[in-house]
Amino acid sequence: MPHPPIGQVISSISKSDLSEQERAGLLLMREEEKLAHDVYVKLSEKWPLRPLQNIPRGEQMHMDAMKALLDRYGIQDPIDEKPLGEFSTADMQKLYDQLVAQGEQSIADAVEVGLLIEELDIADLNRLMQQADNEDIKVVYQNLTKGSRNHLRMFWRQLGRYNGSYTPQHLAQSEFDRIARSEPERGQLITDPNFQF
After folding, report:
1. Cα 13 to chain center, whole Å?
2. What pLDDT digit, counting tens, does each position of 132-178 carry?
3. CA angle 141-147-149, nearest 5°?
4. Is residue 83 part of a domain?
5. Domain tally for the chain?
6. Where are the alpha helices (DSSP H) in the chain?
7. How distant, in Å, are the alpha carbons of 29, 43, 156 from that of 153?
8. pTM passes above 0.90
9. Measured between alpha carbons, how far is 142 from 50 in angstroms, rounded to an integer?
10. Lowest-confidence range among 175-179, 181-185, 192-196?
11. Looking at the predicted structure, is the pLDDT value of residue 186 above 50?
């Protein structure tokens, strides 16, 4: 049975007023998902690494889910028509440039960049879920977090192969290890806004 598109899931949830924190979170995650997508596409041009080739499709789905929320709440898309590697905020542009430069140093560096991006995504999504009241937003964040946990696991499996090392910068070591060493999460979309991993 095919998974229902995330847009179908959120459209079945009543829309509520948007707080300023929620609005800022939507804008941040739209750009952060583009960051992940664009860094991986750029690094895949240099390194024949499976996660770099496969994960951008997942990141595109994450970007589309965030775009669906922006459209639902009538918020202007900060990355509308922006080409690969271009962002609307100086901080995101600087981070993109730094991550690409680091990831181009070696294939092990590219793996470590992947881990950093997915860890940052998870940490930011966890924080934003705590701030959000709207169930449609929380359901999207739940599914983006699940996807990022799976992406982190993919990069983690590559780390030893290339003699890389990684120390978490955004998650506690125990939380990072719990995700990295657990089995991939498969199955249906998460529809519970209060799901606990």
Report:
1. 22
2. 999 999 999 999 999 999 999 999 999 989 988 899 999 999 999 99
3. 100
4. yes
5. 1
6. 6-11, 20-44, 50-72, 90-103, 107-131, 135-159, 173-180
7. 20, 18, 5
8. yes
9. 25
10. 192-196
11. yes
Is residue 121 within 8 A of residue 28, CB to CB? The reply is: no
Classify residue 93: in a domain, yes or no: yes
User: What is the C-alpha separation between 146 and 123, in angstroms, rounded?
Assistant: 12
Alpha-carbon distances of 48 from 2, 76, 107, 112, 164, rounded to whole Å? 30, 36, 9, 15, 16
Sign of the CA dihedral with 170 first, then 176, 180, and 185 last: negative
Q: pLDDT digits over 43-90, tens only?
A: 999 999 989 988 988 888 888 899 999 999 999 999 988 999 999 999
Q: pLDDT digit string (tens) for 83-102?
A: 999 999 999 999 999 999 99
161 lies in some domain: yes
Do the domain assignments include residue 84? yes
Domain span holding position 120: 18-180
What CATH code is carried by the domain that includes residue 135? 1.20.1260.10
Nearest CA to 113 among 42, 54, 9?
Answer: 42
